[in-house]
Amino acid sequence: MKKILGIALLYALGMYNVHAQPTNTANFVPESYVLSETYYGDVNKDGEEDCILIIKGTDEKNVVINRFDQEVDRNRRGIIVLLKNNGSYEVADKNYDCFYSENEDGGVYYAPELWIEVERSNLIIHFAHGRYGYWRYIFRFQESEFKLIGYDASSNHGPIIDRETSINFLTKKKLTRVNTNQDSEGGDEIFDETGVKFEQDRLFKLSEIEHFEDFDMGLEY
User: Fold this and answer.
1) Residue 95, C-beta contacts closer than 8 angstroms, at least 6 positions apart
2) Residue range 125-165, pLDDT digits in tens
3) Average pLDDT over the chain, rounded to whole?
4) In terms of pTM, does the model score above 0.90?
5) Pairing state of beta strands 88-99 and 113-119?
């Protein structure tokens, strides 16, 4: 317990994060949270390098003993997106508890790894599950909010891709690609593609997603 609280204190003081950061970003971390990771990228196409903070709760009751008799911190994580304007930051969007702990029990495998990417000014929340594949959510900043415009997922068996899914919430199309070449050793997959249209009244907002692991996009075809 003392070790974990000590790390939390270092986080709070900005001494435990390996990413370089402007000093004022720590001021946006809410009470009872610590700074976990920091990412940078232009998310609103203004040429400025914006800042994405991953924060983590500090509730002591969520520090538990796991099935391996190890003390682990199961506090959830969240995200704060800061837009840079004239050398200072302002909050563009936030969701304090949408990500599970990095110490979550993954069962027979480790829990998927979380990281953030910025591509073509899109904010991408990426979950990687090693040789089992990945899934990622693509958000775009519009109307002063981050809205979900895309979703990609790959289900793998080692180097072999079994299935790929791509959803475009702007065109309302879902593409599924299933590998029909089970003899492939990776790179020689033969995909059967299926595309469908779906109904969607509005785009999902980053701030409204309670928990990503339970997020149901509820597509209607």
Assistant:
1) 78, 79, 206, 207, 209
2) 999 988 889 999 999 999 999 999 999 999 998 889 999 99
3) 87
4) no
5) unpaired
Tokens 């779906």 locate to 198
Strand, coil or helix: 51: strand
pLDDT in tens, 25-69: 889 999 999 999 999 999 999 999 999 999 999 999 999 988 888
Strands (E), 13-159: 33-41, 50-57, 63-65, 71-73, 77-85, 88-99, 113-119, 122-128, 133-142, 145-157
Q: Which of 80-89, 104-113, 188-197 is the least confident region?
A: 104-113
For residues 14 and 8, the answer to whether their CB atoms sit within 8 Å is: no
Instruction: Specify whether the CB–CB gap between 136 and 152 falls below 8 A.
Output: yes
Closest CA to 137 of 150, 146, 119, 154: 150
Q: How many Å apart are CA 34 and CA 96, to the nearest integer?
A: 11
Q: Is the dihedral of CA 137, 112, 19, 207 positive or negative?
A: positive
| Integer Cα distance of 79 and 71 in angstroms | 25
CB under 8 Å to 99, separation ≥6 — which residues? 54, 76, 77, 78, 79, 114, 212
Domain ranges of the chain: 1-104, 112-213
Q: What is the DSSP string of 99-139?
A: E--TT---TTSPPPEEEEEEETTEEEEEEE-GGGEEEEEEE
Q: Of 32, 39, 28, 34, nearest to 14 (Cα)?
A: 34
